[in-house]
Amino acid sequence: MEVKEVKPPSGYGKPPWVFRGSALYQLHLVKAETARAFVPKEFKLVEAFGYTLGGFFLASYDDSPVGIFDEAVGLPSQAARFSKQRITAIPRQSESKANGFLGMIGVGTAFNKPMNCLDIQVTEVKGPVATDICTISVGTAALAKAVPEPNLNKLTGPVINMSLPSFSGRTEYNPHLLKYSCQIECRIRAVHPAKVSGLPVKPKNDTEQSPEQQSSNFVDSMTRELGENERNLSISVMLSKPILALEFNCLKMQVGAPIIVFPCSKNTSRSC
After folding, report:
1. For 58, 112, 207, 271, which has the most beta carbons within 10 A of its beta carbon?
2. Which residue stretches of the chain are H helix?
3. pLDDT above 90 for 63
4. Could you give the 3-state DSSP secondary structure of residue 218?
5. SS3 at position 246
């Protein structure tokens, strides 16, 4: 394995880069054949019975080297627009004795029936083209503000510190596989998983076309299908079965400068 430091990108200041805000980290059971498309060939995929762990990281940053922004980490990366719609629900008292007890200690409502939720429409933006990807319905206190700010710390769980590796690269802009050190300090608690819904597939156009139009459209469709295949794989990960959702409040994330883990050969394609 070759490890080599990479010159930090200009315009972002000196590393480590600090991000502050809140996030939802959701683990899913993902089919191994789906996940394998995102794993570089240098890495071995850990799987059992045809499945592995995947998921997504949905974050809302109040402060960062590039200002305020949202992100949903799923491969491949692409600029996107996040359209948010807040939904307020009237809490209904459950007849269950167990839920009644949880409500008395202030846990039942926060975990199972959040008073507010947030529908987030994720739209991929590539030049002048905008493509709707999915809708994420979040009911957590951090992202949906289900409780008033003064009472937020009562429901946000213990403070933890952890170190996580982060990978990027293998794109047309940077063919190398890059690794970042990521130090996270936050309050953490288990929450109800967010609901992810995909979008219906648009019907194909069967109108008659000239040979020239068919040839041009064939090239365009092949290029589009490659992008759609990557997009569909990402959506399939998000639509897989959730098994654990963790809410990160009072998040402070420090990201170190990237290093090259595996260089990409000049004689290979971007998928090397």
Report:
1. 58
2. 32-35, 97-104, 108-111, 141-144, 149-152, 211-239
3. yes
4. helix
5. strand
Give CA–CA dist 167/67, Å, rounded. Answer: 22
List of residues 6+ apart from 117 with CB closer than 8 A: 86, 87, 89, 137, 138, 139, 144, 146
| Residue 73 dihedral angles phi and psi, to the nearest 5° | -85, 110
More confident residue, 134 or 9: 134
Using DSSP, state whether 18 is helix, strand or coil. Answer: strand
**CA dihedral of 93, 94, 97, 98, whole degrees rounded to 10:** -100
Confidence band (pLDDT; 50, 70, 90) for 31? very high
Distance between CA atoms of 249 and 255, rounded to whole angstroms? 18
Amino acid residing at 80: A
At 190 the three-state DSSP class reads strand
- For residue 245, what pLDDT is reported? 94
Task: Give residue-wise pLDDT tens across range 75-128.
Answer: 667 788 888 887 765 555 444 444 444 444 344 444 444 456 889 998 988 888
Which of 228, 238, 230 is CA-nearest to residue 198? 238
* Mean pLDDT, the chain, integer: 75
Give, rounded to a whole angstrom, the gap between the first and last alpha carbons of the chain.
15
Structure tokens given for 24 = 């939802």
**Which uninterrupted H or E stretch holds 30?**
strand 17-31
The DSSP code for 48 is B
Overall size of the chain counted in residues: 272
**3-class SS shares of the chain: helix, strand, coil, % to 5:** 20, 40, 35
Residues 197-200: contacts with CB under 8 Å, at least 24 apart: 197/134, 197/135, 197/137, 197/239, 198/134, 198/235, 198/239, 199/132, 199/133, 199/134, 199/135
